[in-house]
Amino acid sequence: MSECLILDSRSILQHRSVTKHFRKKYDQSMNQPQDSTNPGVSHEVLNTFRSNLMKKFGRLYEGTATQRNPTLLNEIYTELYITESESGEISNEHEVRQIETRSRRPATVDTAIKCTDIFTPLPGQDKAIRTVLTKGVAGIGKTVSVQKFILDWAEGKENQDVQLIFPLPFREINLMKDTTLSLSDLLHVFFPETKEMEICSDEYKVLFIFDGLDECRLSLDFKSKVKLCNISESASVDELLMNLIVGNLLPSALIWITSRPAAADLVPSECVHRVTEVRGFNEPQKEEYFRKRISDQSLANTIISHLKSSRSLYIMCHIPVFCWISAAVLEKMLSPAESGQIPKTLTQMYTHFLILQTNIKHEKDYEKKVTDEDMILKLGKVAFEQLVKGNLIFYEEDLRECGIDVTEASVYSGLCTQIFREELGLYQGKVFCFVHLSIQEHLAALYVHLSCTNHNRNVFEPITKQNLRSKLKDLFQHVSLSELHQRALKEGLQSKNGHLDLFLRFLLGLSVKSHQILLQRIMKLKSSSSDSNEKTVEYIKKKIRTIDSPEKNPSICSTV
To answer: What single-letter DSSP state applies at residue 64?
Structure first.
């Protein structure tokens, strides 16, 4: 991750503290008695491997924490609610709608599973568990759960029957999609220490963790007849992964795959021995997070009370990333120096969050080389075009398609580390992403809204070759917000998986006058007619009357 900031004395002390912490953990690991079931690997090599994992996964880059000012995962980590789940039918609802729907159902008694026990059968279950698929909506805590699992193992706390853990996130493996190599060579690329190990199914109990199946851009063809049984045999990366998952390669290895619900069926059910679901924070865990995150307990109580007063906001607090966004906004707004209306809706919360981040940007960009509107429009264009394609992570070629070069993207990631991130993977290459899908959806909506109000453009209209006459007509023809809203709603209704639902909420919410006033803090806005909103409301009512079961169509219901 590429980020720049000036370190104050507190940051330097925290950096020294983190360094000291990992040196101590490394020393403890070096002094641990080694299991005799680790043949073919030296004491020193194995502990170097563990130490490197501790350094990588022991820090949580939450908020403004950077590589020089991290937060220790063990200090901030709040246990998540994880349950065993049926593989079942994949929901076509937007993930926010899934959370809202679940909140209305009567409470059920589910068996909670600790993250450290996902490979341990429940009482009464005798069958060994080789492959676990963990699903959960974006930002619910899947990656942090993986991080904590690895850290606990590396520190010698949990799952010590596993000799080696190989975390291979799909966002990094994607960079090797056109590469042909053996599994042994793949591990050498990501984990150089393995060059001094002899990994085979007879000697090691190893765990492969494939985080983010929904981000996979490989062609995982489980019907392929390519069968690999030797870790020294070369093949494409997607064939290596497929053979690992089905058990042709290293059949005794454990496999852990995480995914958002919509992509969970990419792996055939017969290849999966347990399906778990990360539900995020339950009621006590929500409060625990804010009390850990905010040192002033009186302020933490005030924030919790405010969130409880808004059902839509409190439901979203099941998602840890939303808790972080809410804490950042409300901690600032409830301070004595601040005044103004406290956000009560999702659109208000995310707009306040954007304003907060642009203020931080100003502190870094002293010469104001990048204007707020220019940055928001360019990042918004990336957000919108990639949202339509269903992409949450982007590579250099994706950015070029949106008219942004890598250098420009790196500048934005340095100025707005809490919105847009650049990550340097274990393998060569850069990966870009928004901090959370909902931030991408909000920026996408803002881009679409501003393109209409400030630049008289309906971004849903395809750009085609036109003659001079039609171009002149478009130049002088006014694009109304109601026309834009109607086109956006049509697109949303055609979506089979509801992936534009939250985007639509944000888009319609941004046209409300109170949001227009908010946005004027960071950019000039051209006023929009209130008639447009009335026409949009009438259009939605008309659509509801023409739909047989409107309650089954979340795209239209969520906008009412």
So the answer is: T
Distance of CA 104 to the CA centre of its chain: 25
Task: List, in order, residues 6 or more apart from 408 with CB less than 8 Å away.
Answer: 378
Tell me the CB-side half-sphere exposure of residue 297, using CA atoms within 13 A.
1
Q: Kindly report the length of the chain.
A: 560
Q: Which of 234, 327, 240, 320 is nearest to 279 (CA)?
A: 320
Share of the chain above pLDDT 70, in %: 74
Give the chain's radius of gyration (CA, Å): 25
Going by C-alpha positions, the residue among 122, 173, 167, 119 that lies closest to residue 146 is 167
**So what's the pLDDT on residue 246?**
95
The pLDDT tens digits of the residues spanning 515-527 come to 888 888 877 777 6
What dotted CATH number matches 76-278? 3.40.50.300
State the DSSP string of 80-115.
--EEE----PPP-S-HHHHHHHHHHSPP----B--G
* 412-454 pLDDT, tens digit each: 766 566 677 777 555 556 788 888 889 999 999 999 999 998 8
C-beta separation of 363 from 513 below 8 A = no
Which pair of structure tokens corresponds to residue 408? 């420009």
Half-sphere exposure at residue 342, Cβ-oriented, CA atoms within 13 angstroms: 17
Q: Where are the alpha helices (DSSP H) in 191-282?
A: 237-246
Element (H, E) at 165: strand 164-167
- For residues 472 and 82, the model is more confident at 82
The alpha carbon of residue 24 and the mean position of all alpha carbons in its chain are separated, in whole angstroms, by 31
Residue 63 CA to residue 57 CA, distance in Å, equals: 16
| C-beta of residue 279 within 8 angstroms of C-beta of residue 140 | yes
Helices marked H in 141-278 — which ranges?
142-154, 170-173, 183-190, 237-246
Q: Which tokens sit at 462?
A: 């395809």
* Cβ neighbours of residue 244 closer than 8 Å, sequence gap 6 or more: 183, 208, 250, 253, 255
Buried b (16+ CB within 10 A) or exposed e, 9-20: eebeebbeebee
Q: Which residues of 340-368 are buried (b: 16+ CB within 10 A; e: fewer)?
A: eebbebbbbbbbbbbbbbbebbeeebeee
Cβ proximity of 419 and 434 under 8 Å? yes
Least Cα distance to 255 among 244, 268, 243 occurs for 244
